[in-house]
Amino acid sequence: MILRALYDYYHRSGDLPAFGMELKEIGFIIVIDKCGNFLRFEDRRIDKKSAQQFLVKKSVGRSSAPVANYLYDNSQYVFGYSDKGNMESMRKYFDTFKAKIKEIYNIFSGNEAIKAVYAFYQQEPSAIVEIMQNDPLWVDIVKNLNKKYSTFSFLIEGDTEIVASQKGLINLECNDEKMTGKLCSVIGKYSKIVETTTATMIPGSSQATAKLVAFQINSGYDSYGKSKGHNAPISEEAEFAYTTALNHLLRSDSHNKFMVGSRTFLFWTSSNSEASKLSENSLFALLGRADDPNKRIELVRRTFMSIYNGTLSANKDDKFFILGLAPNSARIAVVYWNELPLREFAGLISKHFTDMEIVDTRKDKKPYVGLHSILGNVTLGGKSSDASPNLPDAVVKGIFQGLPYPASLFQACIRRIRAEQSVNIVRAAIIKAYLNRLTDNNNKKIDIMLDKENQNQGYLCGRLFAVLDKIQEDANGIHSIRERYMNSASATPAMVFATILNLSGHHLEKLNAGGQVFYEKLKQEIISKLDANGFPAHLDLQDQGRFFVGYYHQRQNFFTSKENKETEEQ
After folding, report:
1. Which of 69, 118, 429, 526 has the most CB atoms at less than 10 Å from its CB?
2. Where on the tree of life does the source sit, at the highest rank (predicted)?
3. What 3-state class would DSSP assign to 511?
């Protein structure tokens, strides 16, 4: 269950905010003196998108009625100002926050900080704003009121800690009513139930309005006369734990997430074992936006192989969780969820490595098994974010569940090859992996490198086409055969191979005697393995894929043979 897994993650992490607290980005601090007089604004922004985080009381859930946060909030509440309405229309928010300040003052009247804030709110909001408008930061603040960091709190002149973070003003004591109530569906204990859950900011949404669990009133989801959260009771403790864990995993610098387009995928393990920690770090290096994945890709491979074969011991009960989310205005859409034993997960990742492995003759070898690389190579713009919305979900399912890679990935790969007449290492790896995971036993599995025993007609046609392409390259330094004939040769070989074989004869004449003998022998070797009736009239889509892999294998073999020859000569 998703909520239970997030709840457990909160408790095993050990460094997340205590119950009732949260880390909140507060971009602007209102500095006042001990008499409550406004002195200045302080800018606590880190960059254009983020600000300093402060440990404060957990933010409240809001619907239509105004509800104030504890000693911090947006401009509407804190000083009754908005760029979208006049101050009179903001008055209800200001009065709500002012009432909250009075409530806190009545409890902690001896605290000097709350005395100063209470004195500040003895002024009218118009008078407060009039003074603030003279501050040098005012213009910049107004421009950024819609940013998530546009939150305000107070600092008393001479203090180092903002008022909202002062432990002496925060009462988190549990009362007796929390010990009774309804049975929580997450942790199975009787406790006080939340009616509305906390909204969460996820990538792709402009503000924190979406919730993982929510019930809209009178919309057909109510049952047995129950409303809001009582339809699926969640205790305050469980709600706080899972929302805090979710926000922690979603933070901007999180290494427990990766993104593809509008999709955000979160992953975590059930324990703090060494194997668990290494698997989390490795998956981020494989699928996330790591600074330099080239240096780590082999380490990632070894890590998962070690967990799978038992070299790196994992606890029997260790599990791996993957959660896929998509933004929505009211409820977070769960697009993917999977939980499985850590060792089994490591085996599936290792299988992905094996399936995607293919010969690479480049000097600067780069990883090609990552999700972004795979998706980027089947899109027009070369960006993973340009992939169709459902494709990332399907590829993730293939990797994480060991299922066949989606046909849509294979088809998109074929389309890009046809559009560009280019079979690079990633595309060849995708085709190999897709075809090898199919359950069709009528065709031989594709090897990592050139397989001279492979009798598949599509594969042989691809090999032969690579030879003819290389002859033209050696003779003239161009690839007009590839540019003009690759698409038709891969789909209807019988229609074009007679033509390009004739062209290659002219190209061969421009080579030296040794080259002529070499290529002629290679041509005949491949042709001799083709069907006695001649070239196939038509290749289905799978055999077209084998054609492109055969082409890639043969091209790479030319480079491999050259390297071996140079090594022998040395």
Report:
1. 429
2. Bacteria
3. coil
The pair of structure tokens assigned to 458 is 């599509």
Tokens at 107, concatenated: 């409890």
**How many helices and strands in the chain, by DSSP H and E?**
19, 12
Task: Record the tokens describing residue 372, joined without a space.
Answer: 């972004």
Q: Which two tokens stand for residue 192?
A: 């006080």
**pLDDT, tens digit, 9 for 90 and up, residues 193-211:** 888 788 787 876 656 667 8
At residue 86, does pLDDT exceed 60? yes
Per-residue pLDDT tens digits for 261-288: 788 999 999 998 889 989 998 888 877 6
Q: How far apart are CA 310 and CA 103, in angstroms?
A: 59
Provide the token pair at 278.
């290494």
DSSP three-state, residue 397: helix
Give the model's confidence band at 38: pLDDT under 50 very low, under 70 low, under 90 confident, else very high.
very high
Q: Measured between alpha carbons, how far is 365 from 494 in angstroms, rounded to an integer?
A: 37
Other Cβ atoms within 10 Å of 209 Cβ, number: 16
Q: Cα(59)–Cα(104) distance, rounded to whole angstroms?
A: 16
Q: How far is residue 369's CA from residue 396's CA, in Å, rounded to a whole number?
A: 12
Q: What is the DSSP letter of 211?
A: B
Q: State how far the Cα of 553 lies from the Cα of 561, in Å rounded to an integer.
A: 12
Residue 92 carries which side chain, given as an amino acid letter?
K
Among 116, 142, 113, smallest CA distance to 129 is for 142
- This prediction has a pTM of 0.79
| Contact call for residues 549 and 460 (beta carbons, < 8 A) | no
**Is the distance from CB of 122 to CB of 38 less than 8 angstroms?**
no
The 10 Å CB-count burial string (b at 16+, else e) for 338-353 is eebbbbebbbbbbbbb
Cα dihedral across residues 535, 537, 541, 544: positive or negative: positive
Nearest to 388 by CA among 379, 397, 400: 379
Strand ranges in 296-353 using DSSP code E only, listed in sequence order:
319-326, 333-341
Dist. CA 34–CA 108, nearest whole Å: 15
113: phi > 0 → left, psi -120 to 50 → alpha, else beta; which?
A: alpha
Query: Going by DSSP bridges, is the β-strand pair 152-156/28-32 parallel, antiparallel, or unpaired?
Result: parallel
The larger pLDDT score, comparing residue 138 to residue 384, is at 138
